[in-house]
Predict the structure.
Amino acid sequence: MITVAASSTDRNFISEIVLGDGANFNGESLSLFEMNASTSIISASEAYAGYFTPYQSR
């Protein structure tokens, strides 16, 4: 949730993620920028527990 006083911009932008097996999922993003590189998806609980470095969890 983003709360900003005097903001009139809808902060939900449609986004798509493509997994390594070719499966596509649509959802919402907070950014309009495209990510043209592959990266790992990690569980928030694993990130919090310290199993990943900031470099791995980008």
Remarks:
- The mean pLDDT is 73.
- The chain has one helix and two strands.
